[in-house]
Here is the input.
Amino acid sequence: MALTMAHSAPSMWAAVSAWVPITDLASWHAFSRSKGSRYHRMLEGVCGGVPEDPAADLEYRRRSPLFHLSSAAGLPIDIQAGINDGHGSAQVPVDHSLRAFNELAAANGAKEKALTSAEVEFITREARLPPGLKSDPFDEPSRLHEVLFRRTAGPVRLTLFEGAHETDFSAAMRWLETQRPPPALE
Here is the structure.
């Protein structure tokens, strides 16, 4: 929902913090179905069928933040994900966060900061960082979970932490407190 709010009304927010987001509903449907969880059936009810149906597929796409994030260019967005997310039945594969970061990096004119397809696939499959992946510096000693990787692309920040599908509310609030609204919102 955080990313949906970000792309739907970017001028309304000073910043957005999104933790372990679902960004592509068709992808989430396939993952849920492969794990035997109930979520794929819920998505079918909301979107009018399976993603393979052209009419339903349009609804999955319309409701998926991944395909609309370019309209949030310029908005500070913090995406946080546990590197182990997606290695359980009711979790969200970490590639949802990685792909959202890549879309926002491109939208903010920093496409060179995007992770490569091979890096995204490796992290998602292995639940660890690929050898040689360079992180931006970070210093957050009071987090609940160890930070493993951070990358910034313009006003967008991606953090991978040791963990799964969870939120560190204190870390989110500390970041949000450093953000300032645009003059129109003050």
